[in-house]
Write a structure and sequence with these properties.
There is one protein chain. The chain is mainly β. The protein has three helices and 30 strands. The chain has helices at residues 4-14, 23-34, 43-47; strands spanning 56-60, 63-66, 71-79, 85-94, 99-106, 112-113, 119-121, 126-132, 142-152, 156-163, 168-171, 180-182, 194-198, 203-209, 214-215, 220-227, 235-241, 247-254, 260-267, 272-278, 287-297, 302-308, 317-320, 323-324, 326-330, 332-337, 345-348, 364-372, 375-387, 392-395. The strands form five sheets. Strands 2, 4, 6, 7, 8, 10, 11, 12 and 13 form a nine-stranded mixed beta sheet that branches. Strands 15, 17, 19, 20, 22, 23, 24 and 26 form an eight-stranded mixed beta sheet that branches.
């Protein structure tokens, strides 16, 4: 919100050592302040639009990569040609979910801040600052006007820091008659984007089955593995969904790398697992097991997916100092088969030339293939057939 008293005091500071304002000039100044102007407009601006090539604003570097949670300094440069510059009022915008601005500092030429502090709003992704030079030694040409410190908040391929059209640049001394407030620059070629590639890989959280084959009635383990590489992390939230009609959780065994367990529960009625762990006052990296989950199949032959939940409030994530460093998730596919020792297959066979089954009962061997749709689940090469008096054979 515009603070008239604060801005008025600031502008009086800017005008120190300059000749006193006339009564008419003072009145116009107050009207300008009420209108919300930050840089002073004089009556001459209404009468004279002196020729002045539009300045060029740009970031340096224009392209940079940095890790999530890492602070990076970006300078804002102004090229004004031969024109001397006494002040700038700039507003920046950015994706608040990708970046935050930690601080803004003036450059070596426009060293005085009109605002008490730069106005930084990381909730909406906006930042504004007003820097001036009240001396007679004004900069021109190419020079740095501010240093912006940014920090990446999450893993993204690309994000941008931009100038908005809400800015003004003041030419010459604020008290000279040829003072001119440059209108907003509209030429797209005069504005450059700062592009940051925030952590190209990120942390991978994967489910690793501990058995190659699972038979009905056989318990099996799934390890939740964290692959952080060289990245430092201090917390992992793993939320898994499974088909409760096919599987049930027997137990969850905690890993040792993240010793502070914040959540460890499962629900076999809803098919959900929640495991959250971290480390206090330290960080970890590399590859480690977050937890090991023991399941038991409750149906005989099936194939099902174990998946990580990716939506709030059960969002799977890996963090460093409160920032997401998650790169990718890898679930698991579980398939069960009938154990050859417990499978029982009943079927009828009609043998040519045999009208009914009488003693001695014929002894037969058969090859049995179990399918789920078109998919072959199991093949039994030799199944012994036992006949009963009705001609029905049971293979085991």
């Amino acid at each position: 919100m515009f603070n008239l008293e604060k801005e008025f005091k600031s502008f009086l500071l800017l005008l120190k050592s300059k000749k006193a304002l006339s009564l008419i000039g003072f009145g116009l100044l107050v009207l300008g302040l009420i209108a919300g102007l930050i840089l002073i407009r004089y009556p001459q601006i209404l009468q004279k639009k002196a020729a002045f090539d539009e300045p060029t604003l740009y970031f340096s570097p224009t392209n940079v990569s940095f890790d999530v949670g890492q602070e990076e300094m970006v300078e804002i440069y102004l090229y004004s040609g031969d024109e001397s510059i006494s002040g700038v009022d700039l507003t920046l915008e950015y994706e608040s979910s990708d970046l935050e601005i930690t601080k803004i500092e003036p450059g070596p030429y426009l060293t005085e801040s009109v605002l008490d502090n730069p106005e930084i709003d990381n909730a909406v992704g906006m930042a504004r600052f007003v820097y001036v030079n009240t001396s007679d030694n004004l900069p021109s040409g190419e020079f740095a006007i501010a240093r912006v410190f940014v920090k990446g908040k999450r893993v993204v391929d690309q994000t941008r820091l931009l100038f908005t059209s809400n800015y003004e640049i003041s030419r010459e001394s604020l008290t000279q008659t040829n003072n001119l407030i440059i209108p907003s620059i509209s030429l797209a070629g005069g504005i450059y984007n700062f592009i940051s590639s925030v952590v190209s890989d990120g942390v991978v959280i994967a489910m690793i089955p501990q058995e190659d084959e699972v038979s009905f009635g056989q318990e099996f383990n799934i390890a939740v593995e964290v692959r952080a590489g060289s990245l430092n992390i201090d917390g992992v939230a793993s939320h898994i969904n499974f088909d409760h009609n096919l599987l049930r959780v027997v137990s969850i065994e905690s890993g040792t790398t993240l010793p502070t367990i914040l959540m460890n529960n499962f629900n076999n009625q809803s098919g959900s697992i929640n495991y959250v762990a971290g480390i206090l006052g330290n960080t970890v990296s590399g590859t480690f097991t977050l937890a090991t989950i023991t399941f038991e199949p409750i149906q005989q032959v099936f194939s099902t997916n174990l998946v990580f939940e990716t939506n709030n409030p059960r969002k799977t994530d890996s963090t460093f100092e409160g920032y997401s460093v998650l790169g990718n998730l890898a679930g698991a596919v579980i398939a069960t088969t009938l154990s050859p020792d417990s499978a029982t297959v009943s079927f009828n066979i009609s043998f040519q030339g045999i009208n009914n089954v009488t003693d001695p009962k014929p002894e037969k061997q058969a090859k049995v293939t179990l399918k789920q749709g078109d998919e072959v689940i199991e093949v039994f090469e030799e199944v012994s057939l036992t006949a009963n008096d009705n001609g029905s054979y049971t293979g085991r």
